[in-house]
Amino acid sequence: MSTSNAPTLHELDAPQPGVGAVLRNGLLYVVLGFVALLVVLPLLFALSLALQGPTLSPSLLPDFGKLDWSSFGQVFREEPNLSRWIVNSFVVSVVVTLGQLVTSALAAYALALMKFRGKIVFFFFFLGTLMIPWESTIIPNYLTITRLGWKDSYQGLIVPFLAGGFGIFLLRQYFLTLPYDLYEAAVLDGCGHGRFLWSILLPLSRPALGTLAVYTFLNSWNQYYWPLLVVDSPEWRTTQIGITAFRSSEITVYNLQMAATIIVMLPTLILLVLGQRQLVRGLTAGALKG
Amino acid sequence: MSIKAGDQEAARGNSQLQVVVAGGAAIAKKSKREWQEFGLACLYMSPAILFLVAFTYIPFLRSVWLSLFVTTPQGATARFNGISYYSRIFNLDGSGRSEYLKSILTSLYFALLVVPLGIVFALGLAQLATLKVRAIGFFRTVFTSSIAISVASASVIWALIYSPTTRTTQWIIDLLHLNAASLLQHSGTALLAVAFVTTWTALGFNFIVTLAGIQAIPQELYESARLDGASGWKAFRYLTLPLLTPTLLFLIVINTIQSFQAFTQFNVLIGNEGPDGSTNVFVYSIFTAFWKDNRYGFASAMSVVLFLILLLLTFVQYRVLDRRVHYQ
Amino acid sequence: MKQLNMSRQISVFLLFSLLTIMLGACGSSVATNSTGPTVAANPSAADNAPTTSTGAMSAAATSAAATSAAVTSAPATSMAATSAPATSVAAASAGPTSKPAPTLTPVPLIAQPAGSTKITFWYGLTGANGNIIRTLVNKYNSSQSKYYVEAIQQPDYDATITKFNTSLAGGDLPNVVQVYDIGTQRMIDTKRILPVQNFIDQEKLTLVNDLEPAVARYYTIGGKLYSMPFNSSAPVMYYDRNAFKEVGLDPEKKIWTYDELLDAAKKLTKKDASGKIIRSGIDFTLYSWIFEQELATQSALFADPTNGRESRATKVVFNNDAGAKWLAFLKQTVDQGIGRNIGRDSGTTNGAVRDANFVKGDAAITFNSIAALRGYINGAKTSGKVDVGVAYLPRPAGAKGGVIIGGASLWITDQGTAAQQAGAWDFVKWTSSAEVQASWSSNTGYYPIRKAAYDVQVMKDTLAKYPQFGVAVEQLRATEATFPTQGAVFGTFLQTRLAIEAAMEQFMTGKVADAKAALNDAASKSNDALDEYNSTQK
Questions:
Q1: Interface test with B, best of C164, C532, C535 (most B CBs within 10 A)
Q2: Do A124 and A65 fall within a single domain?
Q3: Structural domain total, chain A
Q4: Residue B303 contacts C where some CB pair is shorter than 8 Å
Q5: Which range is least confidently modeled, A53-57, B97-101, C17-21?
Q6: Which of residues 92-131 of C touch A (CB under 8 A)?
């Protein structure tokens, strides 16, 4: 994201001092501002509706004289499960993220730094999981989870996602970029695999781990299909299922619908603002999985 | 837990290592060490293998198995059905009904709408975001914002934008003289409307990848192009675009695969196969057979077909990625 | 780098503004807790077996208003009166100064007393209706100490039956489960059901004689009452009496033929100078349930043989003249510019649009379940324009049939010990008592399944308050007992509903010009699925 990267064509036409340049800059801001407005227009629309109070015929813009902020508080009372949904999403996303970090780091370490026969078999074993779309496994998985009695439970929402081929390859790739000398030196110092991984490799791999963490967290938070299947009772919904269900039940209460949606979007919006770099890297890399 | 267990194993393997380093390189010992290393590696990989076998490989094989059977509403196999589900999907069973082929085509059509739209928007935004003005970082954050918005949230918002009650999109309906209450209820516009939402949700991602691609183009190239008299549109057309091809190819493949897997927006915005089945993408067909009809065998057959389609696309993806590496 | 810092700063600024919004929201919500009730004009009924969660949930919103109305009408004997949270529901009709109160806070269940036998009970109603069920369960649990019913909410009827089926292998079945009407055959086919008839016969009860005949008929298959009806509804035609008076139509007329209704709709339609519809004569969704009803009004079978009542249905036959006539009628209203097709009903929120249009006075006539009545009346009060009238479903001239009931019933499974099964029956029997049914009906808008319930004071009060409700009961009782009006039972009803709505749409949008052809296609798809289903049943 740093602009110290290669400047582009436009940057070479850098503004010269003078009236023309000021005008040109002004125009650029108008264009930028307009486009930015277009991009976030749906969000503003949501905010606008959230502030219009309970009305059956909302207008595009709220009456700025009497903005009705009460919907944000009211929605928690109308849908007491809303806070529970947020907690659910947090628990699921955090545990899945931690789980993926552990399983991926261990497997990636073996693939990257250990020498053993049949490695290629394991390599393709993990690679194969990238080829199988989630949609092709969802029916048996659903039947399994139901039979285990794991509907409406954290384990049903979490366990199927504790490992992923993508994370393994992301970390393996990163581990391979670290100098092998490091490992040899550690071995000479009498350092075993476990200690090397834990106290040397992982601290060095923080960027990759961060990327995987943000990517996994976001994916997990935004999951819809799976929770839709394995969640029955309202208190076990995750935020994504919650807001869509809330929409269905309060279909004509636009302000509450939008307030709930905005509240649910906040954590990831905050994550974007705080961890933009990891997020961007994660998503760019994450695209490999599709 | 497994880390600790691994530690102990590692300690043992390590002592072996030291012995070897010390000099005694007997073949028997070497092979023993190899086995130990193998065992240790397996231990390290075991959690991942366990989960992936349990929730990816076995379910996938079960999907294939189920697809050959008629199943009871309980999900048990009732009678062997051979490949007749597959021939039904591809309209090879002589029934003359091609709704599943149509569904696959709808998915393709959806991808054809989403991908070009997404890339054109991303290119435009990325070009804007390379402007050298103050506070461009702010605009970049804004352009990226849709990354943080889930498809479900976006769909809930857009459902209201398209809703006849807010009248936000009424002008389009009037303009096109559509005989429908909303854009989502007309067979000619519904898929396009969903595609537009999808494009919006993918905008942040496509933008950031494109921007990274543009920033990776060496500045000197532009300087020399300028000396040759190429700037503005010409430079974009003859310099940026060709050099950005790998990035764009990458985006095309990713977006195609993702649009083939799109489900949330269809379920929230439409909730059925859409006006005249016009939004019945393949993943939604699977959902209907699976969730609404409880035809697990048939749904499994469709999900295997989806796997094959995506495998084909993934194959293309890796080819493209290989080329991308060569370019750079 | 400088710009990077700047972007950071702006990001932090953004974050802070978001937080401010949050805080502002909380603050102002405390300050202004009298901003008026939330709009309760959401009378999408869908109580008659909604095919998706959407339907079930909008029904819940409906009864939010319904609950409150009933509570104010009969506080002393009302079921809801026994529970504080349910009574605190604000009446949408109570005017803009009333406090917005939580409508969805789940009623807490009382704890299981030591020594009692636990009965698990899955129910598929959500929102306020779900709360009334929880209140009921509490009442049952505190009325005796032998059994304890644990009520477990499911997202909707569809999910309930899917989960029930997939749970068969795992053995984790409830003792009692609420299942929608169209799930009847599938429940029987699970072979894990104890027909309530067995219990009735054992205790030599005469309860069946007091059941609403149409309801008892629906749940009787092969001479056996399989499940105990619980929440029953019926379809009606809603109309705006004000609009009818305005254009000189008889607001008291109860039975309309298609032709009469077309004339009426023509008169009721108002257009502006540009030809745009301001008030449509009829707004309707493409709703399979109503389609099924129109077959019944014309005494046409839906499935062969005998709607699956004497032996397993082997094929659907809804692609008949009766079905085509209804489709043609709907198409005519649109073609003549006197009706609007709001789109498919199942799985969508179109029902809510139809309802909103009706209560706002944008449409003079619509078709829906009687359970939507209170939502409509409350919504109409909010808009202040509409006087809600209820009539029979329209029919072609000369049609002699009637309507089929909708809703859901309680099934007892063979799960658990004999004591649990006995407890399950005890609970189910209790829910079918006249008192409970009167109270249930008064709080929700479903009609009682027991004739004796009409003698209970709460029910009398409710009928006095909502005289329109009587029309639905009257229509039901005027219905002759035949196979067509008994309703079809077969294992793949849900798929068939989706296929019918798709066919209706194809015909309405002109994609298939012939109604019969569209229905033929739906029937052949349905039969594929039914053949396959039947082949898995021995």
A1: C532
A2: no
A3: 2
A4: no
A5: C17-21
A6: 100, 102-106, 126-127
* Residue finishing a domain among A49, A77, A105: A77
Query: What's the gap in Å between the CA of C346 and the closest CA on chain B?
Result: 7
Go through the domains of chain C in sequence order and give each one's CATH number.
117-233+405-455 (3.40.190.10), 235-403+482-535 (3.40.190.10)
pTM: 0.80
Q: How many CB pairs under 8 A join A and B?
A: 338
Q: Domain check: are A65 and A95 in the same one?
A: no
Residue at A3 is within a domain: no
What's the confidence (pLDDT) of residue A281?
A: 63
Å between B135 CA and nearest CA of chain C: 6
Q: Do B147 and A283 touch (CB under 8 A)?
A: yes
Q: Which domain holds residue A268?
A: 79-286
Among C29, C152, C172, C177, pick the best mutation site for testing chain A contact (most A Cβ within 10 A): C29
Q: What is the pLDDT of residue B301?
A: 96
Domain-located, residue A123: yes
Range of lowest pLDDT (B170-184, B260-274, C321-335) = B170-184
Chain B, chain C: beta-carbon pairs less than 8 Å apart: 109
Cβ–Cβ of B48/A160 closer than 8 Å?
A: no
Domain map of chain B by residue range?
A: 2-66, 89-327
For residue B226, what pLDDT is reported?
Answer: 83
Q: What is the pLDDT of residue B323?
A: 60
C58 Cβ neighbours under 8 A, 6+ residues apart: A248, A249, A251, C42, C44, C45, C46, C50, C349, C351, C352, C355
Residue A4 lies in a domain: no
In a domain? residue A5: no
pLDDT at A289 over 60: no
Q: Which of A280-284, C444-448, C503-507 has the lowest mean pLDDT?
A: A280-284
Interchain pair C348, B272: CB under 8 A: yes
In three-state form (DSSP H/G/I as H, E/B as E, the rest C), the secondary structure along chain B is CHHHHHHHHHHHHHHHHHHHHHCCCCHHHHHHHHHHHHHHHHHHHHHHHHHHHHHHHHHHHHHHHHCCEEECCCCCEEEECCCHHHHHHCCCCCCCCCHHHHHHHHHHHHHHHHHHHHHHHHHHHHHHHCCCCCCHHHHHHHHHHHHHCCHHHHHHHHHHHHCCCCCCCHHHHHHHCCCCCCHHHCCCCHHHHHHHHHHHHHHHHHHHHHHHHHHCCCHHHHHHHHHCCCCCHHHHHHHHHHHHHHHHHHHHHHHHHHHHHCCHHHHHHCCCCCHHHCCCCHHHHHHHHHHHCCCHHHHHHHHHHHHHHHHHHHHHHHHHHHHHHHHC
A242 and A158, same structural domain? Answer: yes
Does residue A66 sit in the same domain as residue A84?
no
> Which architecture, in CATH terms, is B89-327?
Orthogonal Bundle (1.10)
For residues A162 and A155, give the distance between their C-alpha atoms in angstroms, rounded to a whole number. 10
Instruction: With beta carbons under 8 A apart, name residues in chain C contacting B294.
Output: 162, 165
Tell me the pLDDT band of B26, cut-offs 50, 70 and 90.
low
- Give the pLDDT mean for A86-107: 96
Mean pLDDT of chain A: 84
Same domain, A275 and A232: yes
A267 & A159 share domain? yes
For B277-315, write each residue's pLDDT tens digit.
899 999 999 999 998 888 999 999 999 999 999 888 777
- Tens of pLDDT, residues A23-44: 888 888 898 999 999 899 999 9
B271 in contact with C at a CB cutoff of 8 Å?
yes
Domain boundary among A62, A77, A92: A77
For residues A94 and A116, membership in a common domain is answered with yes
Nearest to C166 among A56, A143, A270 (CB): A143
Q: Flag whether residue C15 sits within 8 Å of chain A, measured between CB atoms.
A: yes
Same structural domain, A83 and A59: no
